[in-house]
Task: structure prediction
Amino acid sequence: MLKTSDFNYDLPEELIAQTPIEKRDHSRLMVLDRKTGEISHEHFFDIKKHLRAGDCLVINDTRVLPARLYGIKEGGGAHVEVLLLKNIEGDDWECIVYPGRRLKEGAVVSFGDGILKGEIIRVLPDGNRIVRFMYEGIFLELLEKIGTMPLPPYITERLDDGERYQTVYSRENGSAAAPTAGLHFTRDLLREIEEMGVDVVHVTLHVGLGTFRPVKEENITDHLMHTESYNVTEEAAARINAAKARGGRVIAVGTTSCRTLESVGDEQGIVHSGSGDTSIFIYPGYTFKVLDGLITNFHLPESTLIMLVSAFSSREHVLHAYETAVQERYRFFSFGDAMLLL
Result:
C-alpha cells in the first residue's frame, strides 16, 4: 500500500518562490532521466537541446480568471471574500466564500461599489456556494476591473503584474490557478522550438483550486480526486496522433496537459477529441498511454502532483531529484524552477 507519507520531503520555507524571476526562460531546469534517475542541471532556455524534429509539445492554453472578489454583504455591511471556482451555467458559479457563516442562501453581496452583485442561491454539502451574479455589461470585463489574481496560499507577496501568473499562450478563460510549467516559455522560445520542426499543440484544461488540496487519507487510493473540465479539438487530436505515428515523442507541458492527454487517450495510445470533466488520479503503478515526456515544476510534499510525477518516473528517482533540488537551492512551486523528465 502506498501511503501519503511516502511522498513527503523536507523543504526549507525560503525555497518557496514568492515572485517570478525577471526573464521567464532563465529559470533553472533539472533534467531527469526517468529510467535511470540521472540528473543534469541547466536553464530553461536549454530545453531546445532535448527536443527534436517530429516531436509534439502539448501546451495547456487555459487562462486564469482574476477570480478573487472582495465585497460587502448587503443589509449587514460585513466584508466578505468570494473566490470563483467553476461556471455552472449562465451567471451561476460555484464559489468558495469567507466567512461562510455570513453567507447563507438568499444573502446578496455587492462588489466594486455595486457594479457587480452576487446572490447565494445554494449551499453545497462541502460548504461551497452557488452564486448567481447580476450586472450590466460583460462579466469578464468586470472581473478584469475589480477581481484579483487567485495566487496559491503559499505565495504571500503581492504580484504587481498579473500577466506573470499567465502563460504567454493563455487564451481560454476559466482557471482558478495557472498551469505553472508553462510560465517558463516565452513567445520567442516557442517560435524557435517550432522552427526546429516540433509541433506545438494546444489543449485546454481549466485548473481548479483542488490542485492545491492536500491528501489527508493515509492510503492514497482513498483520496477523492478533484474534477476539472477539458477540451481537445479534432485538429489537436489528429496532430498528436500524427506525431506518435511518425515516431515522434509526445511531451506534455505540465501535469494539466498530462492529465488531459491521459484522460482522452485509449489503451493503444490514440488520442480522441472531445470535451468533458476528468477526475483522473495518476500515481505509481499507472501505465501511461500517451505521454513520452513531461515538463513540470517542483510540487508540494504529499500532493497528487508529486504522485503523478513519481508515476512517470519512480518514487525513488523523483524524491532523490527533489532532495538534490533542495541541496542545489532550486526555487519551488508556482513561480519556481522546472524539471524535464524524458
